[in-house]
Each structure stands twice: as C-alpha cells, then as structure tokens.
Amino acid sequence: MFDRLSALQRSLVAAFAGFLFYGAWAFAINFAYGQASALKAAAVQGSYSFVLTLSMTLVLEAIFKFMSHFFNQRWLIDWTTVLAGCALVFSGSWIVNVMAGTPEIFKTVILGYVVGGFYCAVYVRGLARASKGAHE
Q: Is 135 helix (H, G, I), strand (E, B) or coil?
C-alpha cells in the first residue's frame, strides 16, 4: 500500500494517525478532569501531533528524493535521510525550548527525539521498500 500512495497522501495518512493516537492518549489521560477538559486536551495534542507528523513526513519525503539522486547505495540514502530529517526537525524543537527558557531542555525533548527518531527510521524504511530496486 505504501508504494501506491503519493508523498502527500502518505504524509496525510501518517499525520491523521498521529492525530488519532495522540489525541486519544490526551483524552484518556485528561478524562478524570471532565469531558470538556479531555476534549480540549485531545484537540490540542492531536492537532499538534498532526502538524508535527505532517511536517516531519514531508521533510523525510523531500530529503529521501534528494538523497536518491545524490547517492547510489541504499544504506547511504536511508541513513542520510534519517539523520538529516531528524537534525532538521529536532533542531526546531530545541530552538523553541531555548526561546521559551525551558530549564531542562534535554530531559524535556529526549522522549520526543527517541520516538521521532524511531518514526523516521521506520518511515524511511517504508520509502526504501516502496522504491526497491531503484538503487540496489
């Protein structure tokens, strides 16, 4: 299925999945404070996750396409895409926390970096499988 969708379609599917997963998580965690609070938390977290996932996925798609023209070896394409994508997106998170004056930036962002890094690696693996044979 991954290879039958366009880059935008893949990105939107991933973003909607992020919205649903993190929105549901926020709803469940905040339900004890009432349905209105839970819905608000779900909307905020779900929307944030949608935007972040969509942005990250579109960045990965663009970098993967660029690296596919730049390198001939699959592992170089895959790992430079993951590293460049993570560096670009994660630096934005770091800068926002610096600007906000977050006292414990590393502890604040590390979980998102681990989950985001895993997501990047899995997504790029899907891109590699979808374009299998092009550079092997």
A: coil
Q: Which residue has the higher pLDDT, 56 or 136?
A: 56
Task: Tell me, yes or no, whether 44 lies in a domain.
Answer: yes
Q: Residue 22 is encoded by which pair of tokens?
A: 């993190």
Establish if 135 belongs to a structural domain. Answer: no
Are 36 and 102 within 8 A, CB to CB? no
- Say if 136 falls within a structural domain: no
CB-CB contact of 128 with 74 (8 Å)? yes
2 neighbors 126 (Cβ within 8 angstroms) = yes
CA angle 48, 51, 52 (to 5 degrees): 80
Give me the count of residues in the chain: 136
Identify whether 88 is part of a domain: yes
pLDDT tens, residue by residue, 73-131: 999 999 999 999 999 989 988 898 899 888 898 988 888 899 999 999 999 999 999 88
Question: Which residue range(s) make up the domain with 51?
Answer: 2-130
Taking 70 as the threshold, does the pLDDT of residue 1 lie above it?
A: no
Q: In total, how many domains does the chain have?
A: 1
